[in-house]
Amino acid sequence: MHVADGWVGYLACPHCGGGLHRARGALRCAQGHTFDVARQGYVNLLPGAVRKGTGDTAAMLSAREEFFGAGHYRPLIDRVADTAVRAVEGVDGCVIEAGSGPGHYLAAALERLPARLGLALDLSKHAARRAARSHPRMGAVVCDAWERIPVQDSVAALVLSVFAPRNVPEFVRVLAPGGAVVVAPSGRHLENLVDTLGMVGVDPDKGARIRRGFSGAFLLEQVEVLERAVLLSRAEAVAVAAMGPTAFHVPVDELQRRAEALGDPVETTISVEIFTWRLTR
Ligand SMILES: C[S@@+](CC[C@H](N)C(=O)[O-])C[C@H]1O[C@@H](n2cnc3c(N)ncnc32)[C@H](O)[C@@H]1O
Ligand SMILES: [Zn+2]
Questions:
Q1: Is the dihedral of CA 178, 97, 74, 245 positive or negative?
Q2: pTM
């Protein structure tokens, strides 16, 4: 198998759990279940219909690319990638990003890990389309990270989840033994914008919920806090709202209208917690 395709070997058929291999323009298991590889390079491994409403839309992905293109999250991407490199030390296996979006964090981790392959998992085909192009050693898979993940047991050295679903039992199953790096916003993330734009706020119990969810199966190895002031143009402030869950509730033209109450530029804060969890088994 060509190295760029090696990630296929980590996947599991969503119907029978068997391994998958390339068969012309598709992936196939030994029982003959077949999944087309899209022209854009991603594969859809959803066993049935997509659950509506939770995968990011094409417009959200465009807003995400516009915002990432401005570089404000570069320090966060670098910090997460450095943390990922430390977390996989001494553990064999691939690196998975659950709810990867366009896969920026995974791509940065793979850049620092030249011998590893990556799997970007997302419910949105728009996200998978972009992730498929974001790194030559990254495979992009459409799947529901809240269900059984179409990845074989014990093949991952690390699961990354950045502002994304955290299916702890499934993370445990796919890890070999390895760990998880989880990034979540703190209550101060994007303050100033949250109220004015009516953004979906951060649950104040979020950090505690993550700790409750992971402890037991994992030991908390490290928590890093990354907090810094950033100056966004008004258009970037709209993009950062339009790329996240707020977009499911507030149309972009309404965000633009609300943004008129902001300065241009506007100062806000990036504030996240980066958790490194180590599997106890
Ligand atoms: C806030 S975005 C974060 C994307 C990416 N990690 C980043 O920070 O750039 C959340 C992502 O989770 C994906 N998502 C939502 N529900 C999902 C599910 N059930 N399974 C897999 N991905 C899901 C969305 O499509 C979206 O790309
Ligand atoms: Zn099968």
A1: negative
A2: 0.96
Q: Is 101 in the pocket of ligand 1 (CB under 6 A)?
A: yes
Which residues have C-beta within 8 Å of that of residue 205, sequence separation ≥ 6? none
CA distances (Å), 173 to each of 102, 112, 142, 177, in order? 24, 25, 19, 9
What is the CA 124 to chain-centroid distance, rounded?
11
Ligand 1 atom nearest the C-alpha of 64 is 9
Q: In the structure encoding, which two tokens stand for residue 127, read together?
A: 């996200």
Q: Output the residue whose Cα is nearest ligand 1's atom 17.
A: 123
What's the chain's Rg over C-alpha atoms?
A: 19
Tokens 């100062």 label which residue? 267
Backbone angles phi, psi at 94, to 5 degrees: -85, 175
Distance (Å) from CA 17 to ligand 2 centroid: 6
Ligand 1 proximity of 103 Cβ (cutoff 6 Å): no
Task: Quote the tokens at residue 199.
Answer: 């953004």
Do 186 and 207 touch, CB atoms closer than 8 A?
yes
DSSP assignment of 206-219 equals: HHHHHHHHHBTTEE
Per-residue pLDDT tens digits for 70-102: 999 999 999 999 999 999 999 999 999 999 999
- As a whole number of angstroms, the distance between CA 129 and CA 127 comes to 5
Which residue has 């993940």 as its token pair? 149
CA end-to-end span of the chain: 31
Phi then psi for residue 168, to 5 deg, are -55, -50
